[in-house]
Amino acid sequence: MTNPELSLNAKTRIKEDSTPKKLRREGYVPAVLYGHKITTQNLKIPVQKMEKIYNEAGESQLLNLSIDGKQPVKILIKDIQTDLIKDKFLHADFYQVKMGEEITTEIPLSFIGQSKAIKELGGFLIKNMESIEVSCLPSNLPSEIEVDISQLQDFSDQIKLNDLKLPKDVELTSETTDDVVAIIEEPRGEKEEEESKEETDETEEKEDEKNQNNY
Questions:
Q1: What CATH number does residue 166 fall under?
Q2: What's the total number of domains in the chain?
Q3: 48, 58, 206: which is closest to 131 by C-alpha?
Q4: Which residues lie below 8 Å from residue 101, measured CB to CB, with a gap of 6+?
């Protein structure tokens, strides 16, 4: 569901706004709104408001977008372009949703619980995924998907896509549900010691075979 506090006001970009570079100097982020069977609109949003709403909503929560003070529409932030050096927003893409039509989007994973392999065996959590793609109606869109790592008891355990508990009426888009989401890696010292022991055992076996062949 849409959080009523997650609202954003935008203005229509007009010819007088000139270039995106000029808009940014004036404190705005150029943006575009598009969607299924709607007319694409060029917009501008105050950069501080854009940064605040993105930090709160990311790309997985519905927002109320009001353009030029008109009735709000439901949107998702689909893409943000940033200047990595200056850490500034350069451009935003918004997708207008229709509440009766399914949407496909990325949902972040939230890793919860305690793993015995970490707490007692000193392992390290390896996350192979930070988000997953799902499809659902906008009203069923979760803000995150929880991943309970307590099921990782030892270093052989894995959490796969098909182990995730999705909310009702939310489906994975991936056809390969056996992809690994998370594992626990052994402490490096123990792992190197074990590999060294295996190499030593293998060397000793070869020496034994060689000695037997010499008799």
A1: 2.170.120.20
A2: 2
A3: 58
A4: 36, 137, 138
Write out pLDDT tens, residues 65-96: 999 999 999 999 999 999 888 888 999 999 99
Is 193 part of a structural domain of the chain?
Answer: no
Q: Is residue 150 part of a domain?
A: yes
User: Is 0.85 surpassed by the pTM of this model?
Assistant: no
Report the distance separating Cα 13 and Cα 93, nearest Å: 14
| Identity of residue 45 | I
Residue owning tokens 């598009």: 34
List phi, psi (to 5°) of 197.
-65, -40
Q: Looking at the domain assignment, is residue 198 inside a domain? A: no
157 pLDDT tier (thresholds 50, 70, 90):
very high
Q: Give CA–CA dist 168/141, Å, rounded.
A: 10
Q: Can you give the residue range of the structural domain that contains 166?
A: 104-188
CB 177 within 8 A of CB 160: yes
Q: Are residues 11 and 91 in the same domain?
A: yes
Is residue 70 within 8 Å of residue 106, measured between CB atoms? Answer: no
CA pair distance 59, 70, nearest whole angstrom: 23
Question: Which two tokens mark 109?
Answer: 């994973």
Shared domain for 13 and 88, answered yes or no, is yes
